[in-house]
């Protein structure tokens, strides 16, 4: 057998080859900043600036468009209040909006004049609140204030009720002439929509919890007078803190 040539390796100057770093395309190489918002710490990625490609077509990508489906019973209110919905979205948020007659969706899209991409989600939440049944003026608060949310739940999430039992629970929530609902709204500074067995609450996180607790007590069978007393105690405590 032929002898193999000897290879002299200088151990002092020998450096092993480093394996090439795998690039994570999903995250990219851009640096991240730590940001605190309302006591919650998170990271925001500094996105590299790219040239915006102007397209004349109505682009339907998830990044620059939101679609809000409209149920049949909200067509007429949407038509009557379209100008009130259209004006703040276009003039204040600098977005484009249209109602697609084929898909029955309200479509909101960014354009070259849009200052903040976050306005797109604000507009979508505003339209969604109107579709749920809130007044336009109440839904506008979602665009003006940052710490407002909508919470939705059903009566069966609290207690399984059927037939007349469920109807009576809805009656307890509304009260005579809507008095119980209005009282909960005024004390907790929220807005409530009773849509059959679904309940939508619009307000800040803490106020939504207060309203939900009162509504759950009514569903479980507490008399309205007892719930009023609990709300009065909560309201007095809140006013003392303020």
Characterize the main sheet: 3 strands, antiparallel
Helix segment tally = 9
What structural class do the secondary elements suggest? alpha+beta
Average pLDDT number: 79
CA-to-CA gap between the ends? 95 Å
Helix fraction, binned, reads 40-55%
In spatial order, strands of the major sheet run 3-5-4
User: Radius of gyration, rounded?
Assistant: 28 Å
Low-confidence stretches: 34-44, 50-59
Account of the 3D structure:
With 242 residues, this protein is an alpha+beta fold. It is 41% helix and 19% strand. The protein is built from 9 helices and 8 strands. The protein has helices at 75-80, 82-92, 118-132, 136-144, 155-158, 164-174, 179-188, 205-219, 224-241, and strands at 32-37, 40-45, 65-69, 96-100, 105-109, 148-154, 191-195, 198-204. It has a 3-stranded antiparallel beta sheet with strand order 3-5-4. Strands 6-8-7 form a 3-stranded antiparallel beta sheet, sandwiched between helices. It has a two-stranded antiparallel sheet with strand order 1-2. Strand 7 and strand 8 form a beta hairpin. Helix 3 (118-132) runs antiparallel to helix 4. The protein is globular and about 85 Å long. Residues 34-44 and 50-59 have low confidence and may be disordered.
